[in-house]
Amino acid sequence: MPRPGEADLPFLWPRAYTKGLYYQAFGGRRRCLSKSVAPLLAHGYRRFLPTKDHVFILDYSGTLFFLKNALVSSTLGQIQWKRACRYVVLCRGAKDFASDPRCDTVYRKYLYVLATREQPGMVGATGPRACDCVEVYLQSSGQRVFKMTFHHSMSFKQIVLVGQETQRALLLLTEEGKIYSLVVNETQLDQPRSYTVQLALRKVSRCLPHLRVTCMASNQSSTLYITDQGGVYFEVHTPGVYRDLFGTLQAFDPLDQQMPLALSLPAKILFCALGYNHLGLVDEFGRIFMQGNNRYGQLGTGDKMDRGEPTQVQYLQRPIALWCGLNHSLVLSQDSDSNKELLGCGCGAGGRLPGWPKGSASFVKLQVKVPLCACALCSSRECLYMLSSHDIEQHLAYRDLPAGRTAGTPELGPAAGAPQDPGGAARALEEYLNQVHSCPTLQARVAKMREIVGWLPLPSAQRDFFWGALDMLQRAAAGGSPGSPAPES
Predict the structure, then answer these.
(1) 304 three-state secondary structure
(2) Please, are residues 67 and 38 in contact by the beta-carbon 8 Å criterion?
């Protein structure tokens, strides 16, 4: 006789047995992937968020877990990392959660949780009603310090934050695709007082009522909306970020910062990543488009020229996840051998691009061992995190690019399927050869070849072979023995 819940086992076991949170610290001597404790009762991992001291994980049943002691401070005031060894349940019935949107986790003092709670019935009502609410917790202790409850007729599915602490705007996405917002003063949340906050329809839903937003992304000074039709709309609240993203201040209105700006894109956008002054978009064909500041090469276009409109990153397709961090970008991808790998570009300072301390203006393979079922990632100032959880109900289904639209977008190697534009591929390889020829020294040519091998969609075994051979050549050119370590490139 089957046990209770056994009929649902095919849907639950992939989540249960593949869940894991992995992290690699950037500082210190030990630079390898570690795994935190996995709550036994968690029904897979849906999303996670590192804060100043701990990590929070939401599972598929709406339970929010509080992983404690992810890092501690030493007596010398330096950060020391250790494995998260214990956990507690912060709350149940959670739908989503958010904290300060800046990449530096030191600012994440509070955790905002969107949840559903049973409220006592009103006069004349037959019983309690389920109402959505936002609960605010101290990330350091897990203590709830604030709660706001909404009318039972309003149902939300996502929450993001934007703005500074004294003017923290909470954006709430309804099931119908409308955006509501309210403002709180975060510096007063820990004071024992009550006050009323006003919920208002955001301008993107008020002025464009026909739009149905499906997801949001935010940082401290801008917000990005993706609609059910794959359109992208932007709010930018500061002139500096506006100039970085669009290259001009011509259309910026400081008196109307909520005016949504439509991005011109060739296809339906599936998901996005938003950094402080650059962003990444992935369309239905698996193409990656980057836009914004490129001072450190964080757009991965092979140069350091800013882009005021979405620009496709060639030879990088069908990502699993995308992350725009502090002057760098990361892509989680899968090669033709079904092995997952992590690619990165931009500033490599502080170890944020493992294996490439000097950074790279193009996406290169990082020296990180990626878990088999990795599905999400994020990077803070101190650490790289990867979430592992396989869900058979959620799978990115990219479409094949129509043959008539492949001109100018060559696809090389088995990672992208059969070459659909051999002429474009040949021109790209010829351009790579010209770049190698233009390097003044042998060391510079070997370094350029290492970059180019990282750009090409080769199987991981072939890429590692070419990199190993180039390391041998580089050591020989430097006069070192075959077993000596290669200089940094």
Answers:
(1) coil
(2) no
Dump pLDDT digits (tens) for 107-157.
Answer: 999 999 999 998 876 555 566 789 999 999 999 899 999 999 998 889 999
Region of poorest pLDDT, from 37-51, 145-159, 399-413:
399-413
d(CA 197, CA 301): 44
Residue 62's alpha-carbon distances to 32, 44, 45, 445, in angstroms, are 31, 11, 10, 53
Checking if the pLDDT of 53 tops 90, the result is no
DSSP 358: T
Q: Is the alpha carbon torsion for 286, 287, 291, 296 positive or negative? A: positive
Question: Which residues partner with 331 through β-bridges?
Answer: 322, 343
Render the burial of 458-476: b for 16+ CB within 10 Å, e for the rest: bebebbeebbeebbebbbe
How far is 252 from 238, CA to CA, in rounded Å?
9
Phi, psi of 472 (to 5 degrees): -60, -45
Beta strands 340-346 and 328-334 are antiparallel
What is the bridge-based pairing of β-strands 156-162 and 144-149? unpaired
pLDDT band at 3 (very low <50, low <70, confident <90, very high): very low
Least confident of 91-105, 179-193, 254-268, 419-433: 419-433
Q: Are 26 and 350 in contact (CB under 8 A)?
A: yes
The two three-digit tokens of residue 93, written as one number:
């019935």
- Check if the beta carbon of residue 384 is closer than 8 Å to that of residue 51: no
DSSP letter assigned to residue 189 = T
> How many whole angstroms separate alpha carbon 386 and alpha carbon 48?
9
Q: What region, left, alpha or beta, does residue 417 occupy, with left being phi > 0 and alpha being psi -120 to 50 degrees?
A: left
Written as six digits, the tokens of 377 are 């990632």
Helix, strand, coil shares of the chain as percentages rounded to 5? 20, 35, 45
Judged by phi (left if over 0) then psi (alpha if -120 to 50, else beta), residue 483 lies in alpha
- Reduced 3-state DSSP string for 192-228: CCCCCCCCEECHHHHHCCCCCEEEEEECCCEEEEEEC
Q: Are residues 292 and 281 in contact, defined by beta-carbon separation less than 8 angstroms?
A: no
